[in-house]
Structure formats: C-alpha cells, structure tokens
Amino acid sequence: MDNENLVRSIKQLCQKNNITVSQLENDLKYSPSLISRWKDKSPSIDKIVNIANYFHVSLDEVVGYNSYANDDFLNSLYEQTSNGSAIWEDSKAMIKQGLMVKEYTRFYLPGVFLDDEYKETTYAISFNSGYIALYAYHIFDQILHPKDLKLFIQPDDDAFLVDQHYTKEELLKLWVKILNSLGNNAPDAVKAEDLKNEFVLNQSLLNGTDKISGKENMEDIEKIVFDPTVMKLLETYNKPEFQQLQKTVISPEFQRSVQLANKLQKYYEKMKNLDYGEK
User: Fold this and answer.
1) Residue 165: its pLDDT value, please?
2) N or C, which terminus of the chain has less Cβ within 10 Å?
3) Backbone phi, then psi, for 268, in 5-degree steps?
C-alpha cells in the first residue's frame, strides 16, 4: 500500500464531501491527527473499511487506486485485462517468439548493473503492428510492490519506446490486475499470495460451516447442484473439446491471428475499392 497516496486520497474524499479530516476522525472516533500519521505507519484494514462505509465508496477509492476516472486509455487497458481480451506476456517470452519488444534502459544501462536485490520485469501486449508494455523495477520477491513502474507504447518493431508519463501510483492498479491475470504464468510471489488468500478463505468457510444450522442452506445447495440446466452446463464444460477450445481462444497466438486477419481484411477491402475506382 502506498501510504502517502492513501492519506492524499482520504483528504480528497473529505474535500469532495465538504468536511475536514478532523471531522472525519471525530465522527469515526479516531484519535486526532491519526490519518496524517498513516503516512509513516499503515492502518488496519478495518479502519479503511470504516472510511469506505462512511463515504459510501469502494476500498480502491479510499486507498487511491481509483485513478482512471478521466483516462480512457488506462480504463480500457484495465477493463480488457479484467475480461481477458488483453493477453499480457512476459517480454522475454515474446522476444523468443520473434516479437521485438524493446528493453527500457533507464533501469539497466550498459556497464551499470542493477543492485543484486533488484530486477526488471516487463509485461506487454501486441496490438496492430506495435506493443503496449508495462515495465517494473522491484526487489526480487516483492513484485507486487514495485519501486517504479513505467508504461510505454512501441508503435512498431523498429520504433523507439514512447513514455506515456503516468506515475507509479496511477499504474499500480493495472500492474496488480496484470499479475493476477497471468494464471499459471504468474511469478512465484504472486502464486504465493494467491495460495495465502485461498488458505484464509478456506479457513473462513470451515468456520462458517460450524455456524450453519443446516436445513435451509443444504436445500438451496441441492436445488443448484441438481438443477438440470446446471448439470448440462457442467457436462459441456468438462468435455475435452470444450476445454481445448477455451485454451485456444484465450491463447496469445490466437489473439495475434485474429489481429492479423483483421489487417488482411482491411487491406483486401482497400484493394477492392481501388479496383472499382479504376473501372
């Protein structure tokens, strides 16, 4: 969590709602100047939840991740990453496939080595004849908390990287979403975080089952499990051909083939129009 961004975001929420930070602290029964002290020490999650409930906003907005409101480009990148239509890949894997994603030399200069504990990680998507790439500089096992982030557009294989001039705070939400979209290709640190969250969730579910009286809950579950439509859906989903189709559709190679087909179609239409024009 970026503590300075958190405090700044809370102050902005107070301004939008025409109250002071002191009034917010008083209403929530927090000690005076507590929120300002969060710049140096992270608050507990329940205090952030209280503020979100107070203003009727999401947790993302309280911690300052909701920074895309007036940016169509970042909004589109985030949404397409969320719904799986933007497939991000490690730049090194893309280069092996012949896709020439350039390195960002601010993190690594010839003759100047990164600190042993730091590394550069880059994920990119190909679009038309170019690339959109997000570069991170981070400690090896802290990829979820990078020291710096940079977003570039590379218009084509031979072009230079064009900096989009976003701050690390503006890019952090997209970075986390990219890492969580990688599935089995995610870095080990991300998989470890997922496992930790799943363990906590599993424990919560186990604790919850002790409190369930049983009858009503089990009846609802049985209605879902034995619904013919649901059973038919699961039967279709588990068919090998459906699983293979799903893998094909979401694969980067398929996405690039679709993009190439679109280019060829546009080129064909253009040539067709030229032919008709000459006649």
Assistant:
1) 85
2) C
3) -65, -45
What would the two tokens of residue 144 be? 């979820």
- Can you tell me the distance from the alpha carbon of 6 to that of 35, in angstroms, rounded to the nearest whole number? 9
For residue 255, the one-letter residue type is Q
**Is the CB of residue 138 less than 8 Å from the CB of residue 147?**
yes
Cβ contact 118:135 at 8 Å: no
Convert the pLDDT of each residue in 157-202 to its tens digit: 888 888 888 888 788 888 988 998 898 888 888 888 778 777 776 7
Environment class of residue 178 by beta-carbon count within 10 Å: exposed (0-12), middle (13-18) or buried (19+)?
A: buried
Q: Is the dihedral of CA 111, 115, 117, 120 positive or negative?
A: negative
**What are 227's two structure tokens?**
């619904």
What letter represents residue 172's amino acid? L
Could you give the domains of the chain?
Answer: 3-63 (1.10.260.40), 72-186 (no CATH), 212-279 (no CATH)
Residue 139 confidence class, pLDDT cut points 50, 70, 90: confident
Residue written as token pair 């002071």: 20
CA distance 235 to 231: 6
- The span from the CA of 39 to the CA of 43, in Å, is 9
The tokens for 102 are 């350039």
Model confidence over 224-266: pLDDT tens digits?
A: 555 666 656 666 666 677 666 766 666 666 666 766 676 677 6
Q: Which residues contact 258 (CB under 8 A, 6 or more apart)?
A: none
